[in-house]
């Protein structure tokens, strides 16, 4: 299979390689799986295990030619464009009747970690890794469009990758709606401009807003806005002001308040304009914190949300 790479904005290597099966999958088992595609239920994630190795794979499928199949094809194609450094890459297989994506079952999503309990140094490390990964996605002219905590994956080396690019698009392309005419997203993470029902207008800054929601909730233990219905979520993102994180979890320094509130600005023009800009700011805060800064810095401690008492960790913050 021919492959090639292109440099996107001089910043990241974006692959034009087509998705391909994982080399780790046993070939005989893979062939047997290919023959059983007709038994896979459309739209339902299935877990299958190799008998000899015990490895388990997550399988998602859809009938060829359907809207769901087009979404799976988009997911595989755009994830491959971004590359393994920032995207969870599926194996892409199928036959004339099915489109099937296969992923390793083992994954560690941010949504699986306790919220409101993370130490601030760990929070900064994850936030910076997420900003680096998102800058790689955007450097390949890809807007994810539906980021949430379940799509932020952490590996054992502290790197972040994003999953599920089925609703993503290339910069400048219109967002593909679902069958109801609305993008299929978790509205807790929807940017204000994404809340427009007539025609959502998205760019990379919408992803930055969603990342702000994810990081805010991870740090303080609750999302920046609360709502009980889609209509309430749409209203909240457009009209309700976000409280500084330090008003919810004691001891969060002003520097982190400022970063998260800027990510969550209602006006895209008031947010960080690029993920690289966000990453640079987080790195600056972390360096100043652990070096002790140079005058004018305050020693602050961070407690678990809602738990008064002695600090668990002590950091010097700008």
TrEMBL record:
Region annotation Disordered: where it falls in the sequence: 299-318
Keyword Nucleotide-binding (UniProt): yes
Keywords: ATP-binding, Kinase, Nucleotide-binding, Transferase
Coiled-coil annotated residue ranges, if any: none
Pfam families: Pkinase
Domain Protein kinase: 1-300
InterPro entries from the UniProt entry: Kinase-like_dom_sf (IPR011009), Prot_kinase_dom (IPR000719)
Gene Ontology molecular function terms on file: ATP binding; protein serine/threonine kinase activity
Gene3D superfamilies for this protein: Transferase(Phosphotransferase) domain 1
Compositional bias ranges of the Basic residues kind: 304-318
Enzyme Commission code(s) on record: 2.7.1.-
Name listed for the protein in its UniProt record: Protein kinase
Organism listed in the record: Rhodopseudomonas palustris (strain ATCC BAA-98 / CGA009)
């Amino acid at each position: 299979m021919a492959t090639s790479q292109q440099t996107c904005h001089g910043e990241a290597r974006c692959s034009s390689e087509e998705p391909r099966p994982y080399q780790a999958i046993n070939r005989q088992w893979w062939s047997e799986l290919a023959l059983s595609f007709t038994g896979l239920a459309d739209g339902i994630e299935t877990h299958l295990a190799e008998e000899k190795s015990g490895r388990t794979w997550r399988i998602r499928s859809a009938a060829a030619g359907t809207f769901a199949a087009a979404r799976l094809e988009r997911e595989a194609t755009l994830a491959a464009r971004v590359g393994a450094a920032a995207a969870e890459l599926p194996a892409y297989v199928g036959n004339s009747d099915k489109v099937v994506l296969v992923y390793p079952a083992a994954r560690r999503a941010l949504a699986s970690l306790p919220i409101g309990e993370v130490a601030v140094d760990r929070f900064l490390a994850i936030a910076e890794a997420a900003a680096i990964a998102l800058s790689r996605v955007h450097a390949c002219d890809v807007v994810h469009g539906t980021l949430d905590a379940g799509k932020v994956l952490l590996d054992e080396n502290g790197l972040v990758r994003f999953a599920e690019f089925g609703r993503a698009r290339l910069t400048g392309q219109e967002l593909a709606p679902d069958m109801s005419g609305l993008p299929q997203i978790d509205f807790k993470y929807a940017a204000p401009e994404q809340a427009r029902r007539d025609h959502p207008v998205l760019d990379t800054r919408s992803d930055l807003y969603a990342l702000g929601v994810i990081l805010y909730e991870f740090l303080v233990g609750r999302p920046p806005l609360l709502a009980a219905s889609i209509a309430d979520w749409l209203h909240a993102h457009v009209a309700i002001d976000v409280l500084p994180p330090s008003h919810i979890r004691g001891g969060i320094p002003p520097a982190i308040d400022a970063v998260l509130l800027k990510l969550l600005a209602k006006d895209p023009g008031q947010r960080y304009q690029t993920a690289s800009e966000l990453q640079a700011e987080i790195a600056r805060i972390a360096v100043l914190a652990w070096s002790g800064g140079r005058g004018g810095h305050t020693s602050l401690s961070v407690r678990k949300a809602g738990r008064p008492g002695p600090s668990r960790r002590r950091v010097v913050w700008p």
